Amino acid sequence: MAAHASNTSQPRPLAAKPRQTIERTHGAGQHSARMAMPKPKSHAKGAAGATPAHAAKPHEATTHASSDTKATHAKPDEGSTAERPNRRIARRVATCAVVILVLLIACYGAGYAYFSSHFIPGTTVDGMDASNLSKDELAAKINQIAASWSSHVTGDGLDLTLAEGDVGLTADGTLRATAARAEVDPRRWPLELLSPKQIETGTGVSLDDARLQATMQAAIDTVNATAAQPTDAYVTYDENGGTFVIKDATIGGVIDATSAIGAVKTSALSLKQSLELGEAQLVKPQLTSESPDLVAARDAANRVLSLEIPLTKEGRELTRVSKDQIAQWVSVSEDMQLDVDVDAIDDWASESLSDKVASSDEVHDYDVDSTSVASSIADNLHRCAADTIEIPLAITGERPAESEGARERGRHIDINLSTQYARFYGGDGTVIWRSYLVSGNTSKRHGTPTGEYSILNKATNQTLIGADENHDNKPDYKSHVNYWMPFLGNAYGLHDASWRSRFGGSIYSYAGSHGCVNLPREKAAELFDLVNVGDKVNIHW
What we know:
With 541 residues, the chain is α+β, with helices and mostly antiparallel strands. It has five domains: 22-79, no CATH class; 87-115; 117-285, no CATH class; 293-398, Ubiquitin-like (UB roll) (Roll); 406-540, L,D-transpeptidase catalytic domain-like, CATH 2.40.440. The strands form ten sheets. Strands 22-21-20-28-23 form a five-stranded mixed β-sheet. Strands 24-25-26-27 form a four-stranded mixed β-sheet, covered by helices on one side.
C-alpha cells in the first residue's frame, strides 16, 4: 500500500534502496514526493495514482529522487503551516465585517422604521420644537398651544400682552403637522441627526391682519408721540483736529410700524408666547457715517481746506487765505454739496483784508472791492483751485510823507516788519526813499532782529556765506549781492536779492530770509547811493 505524502515544507532526500521508487502525486497543482513501500513483483495496480513498481536499478532510483527534490524546491508548498495564522486572521476579519454590516443594516432599518413616523431630535416646525413627536402628537401640541395662546410684546417703549382675540388667531394642527411631515425623508435620518431641519410650513395658523394692525398701531402711536427722532449723519468741522469729519447718525426711539407689526405677526404665526423688539424695529436715519455720498462730501471739503490762495497787491503777495479762514466759509449742505458763504468772505475782505491793504502802504489810502474779492475766492473754492487773486482796489488818497517823530530822529531808515515796508527819512523828516522788502523767515525762527541800529559799512559785490545749521560741514547758503549795508555786526544788513521776483506781503512768514532785509535790486542801488555810514536804522513791528 502506498504511504501518505509528507507535510513537511522541504522534502527529505531519499537514500537509494532496493525496491524503493519515488512517485508523484498530482493534486491541486501541488507536487509532493512520497516513498513507495516494497511491493510484490506483480502487475496489479496499487493505490490510486501509484504506478507499478518496475525493477529499477539502484542508480535509477537515486536519479529520480534527485529530480523530484529539485522540483519541490522550485515551488514551495502553499499549504505549509507558516501560512495558516494569516488565513485564520483573514477569516476572523471577514467575520467581523459581516457582523458589523449586519448590525449597521439592523440599526439603519430600526431608525428608518422609527423616523418614518417621528421627527428627528432637534427638528423645529415653524419655530416649535418637534423632537421625537409623531405627526398626531405635533398636531395635538399645536392645537393645545393655540387654544390658550397669548404673547407678551416688549421693547422699543412697548409693553403689551396680545391674546388670541386681539389678533384673530386660528390654528389647524393637523394641516401644519401634515405639511411638516411632507418635508421629511426618513431615508436620510442618519444625516439629519447631525443637522436637524428647521421646517417652515407657512400653513396651519392664520391671523386677522386688520385686527392685528389696529391693535398694534394704537400702541405704537402712543410710544412715537414722545420718542426721540432719528438724525442723519452729517459733515462738520472739527476745530481740535482741524479737519472736516462725519458726525454719526442717531437712531432715536421712533418705532417703524411696518417692521414692528411684521415681527409680531411672524412670532404669532409660530405660536411664540413672547417677543422682544429691538433696534431692527426702529426708524433708521437715511444717512450714516458709511454713506458713500457723505464720505465723498467730507473728502471734498478737506481738499478745499488744504488750499492756500495767494492775494496780491500790485503783483506783490500781500497775504494768503488760510485754512482757518476757509473753515469758517465752507460747509457741506444737506444735499452733500460744498456750500460757500460768500457773504462771510465779503465781510472778511471789507474788514480784515482792507486793514492789511492799508497797513501795507503808508503812502496811499485804498478802497478794496470786497464783493469782487469774495466772488473770486468763492470761485476758487468751488473749483478746488488756488489761483492767485489780484486784489481789486482803488487809491482814495495820499498820506503825508512825514511820519510822527521823523524830524526829531533825523536821518534814519524806518523798517516796518508788519507792513514789510521801509522808508528812508532825510534830516527834515521827509521821505527820500521807500521800498517793499522781505524780512527774516519767522516760520524757521530766522526773524529779523528789532531795535535801534546804524549802518556800519557799505560794500559792493559781496558773497554772503551762511552758517552750518544742518551740520553737514557746508555753509547753508552762498549768495552774491551787489549792495551790502550791514547794521548788526557783519551778519545782518540790507542788500539786494536778485533771486526774488516779489517783495512785501506775507512772504517773510514762509519764505523769508535768514534775517537780513531783502530789497529789489534797483531799490537797493538807490539806497546804497543815499545812505551814509552811521545813519540810524529803526526796525519794529
